[in-house]
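Q: I'm writing a short methods note and want an example of a predicted protein-small molecule complex. Could you take the sequence and the SMILES for flavin mononucleotide and return the bound structure as tokens? Please keep the output block clean; save any remarks for afterwards.
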Amino acid sequence: MDPRKFRNALGRFPTGVVVVTARTQAGDLVGMTMSSFNSVSLDPPLVLFSIHRKAQSFAAWQSITRYAVNVLNEEQEQVSNQFARPSGNKWEGLTILTGRNGAPMLPNAGVVFECESYARYDGGDHEILVGRIEAIARACLHLPAPTRILRRPISPTSECGERPHPATGSRASARLVRISVL
Ligand SMILES: Cc1cc2nc3c(=O)[nH]c(=O)nc-3n(C[C@H](O)[C@H](O)[C@H](O)COP(=O)(O)O)c2cc1C
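A: Understood, no commentary inside the block.
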């Protein structure tokens, strides 16, 4: 099969975009833009994505056991582009939030699934990673007013961290709010 035709045909299936983020055992940050994200199971709560075996961080992902799946919102095209570059400093200019499971998370993602590695499967030139969701978070920086995120009833809600804003260094306005925990 002509790979280009196959790819073009797949392009007819619209997907969202996520950035999967983690720290290696050495503490280095890794992150990749992914459109292969999908839900798998409700019980247990499982999601999947597939990593190209030729990705520079592929070897690092072999020993990563905890990671975050950051679902990007419509205004984060630049973040998507930044994490689609091979290597380089993908994290430049971004405030790094840390999730409950220790994985680095992106500010202002639509929602973040904090996962532990559940299974891996051969997927041809990709490897399919299945993650078990440990927590669901919404990371927000610079909340103009708490009511903005609390517009609808959310329970349990707990603030779990403060990070400095990249531009101002202000800690007061940089807040990580967790909207629900599984
Ligand atoms: C919209 C979009 C979706 C992508 N989806 C995937 C994907 O599902 N799996 C994958 O391995 N690479 C995907 N990529 C490419 C990776 O983001 C890119 O190769 C990766 O960031 C390189 O990482 P590296 O530094 O480990 O080589 C996608 C890129 C874009 C722009």
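A: Remarks, as requested: The CA atoms of residues 32 and 85 lie 8 Å apart. Confidence is low (pLDDT under 50) at residues 142-174.
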